Amino acid sequence: MRGSPASSAIPRSGERPASGPLTPELAKGPGFDLVVLLDPEAFGEGIDGAVDRYVAIIRATQQLIILTSS
Known about the structure:
This is UvrD-like helicase C-terminal domain-containing protein. The protein has three helices and two strands.
């Protein structure tokens, strides 16, 4: 969702809120201006983990922040 901060805080009918945690599965499809990934290595191993990381990373349209615990 784009717009003023006040308008983006209230989701329109049928839309998800613009903020809050989402799993890679829930984030498929829409793009977000800002994406913050927390420990992307914890998304899993092998092909499934790589696909989840890829999906999460490509959701960012403006900024991508990756935070790791190590």
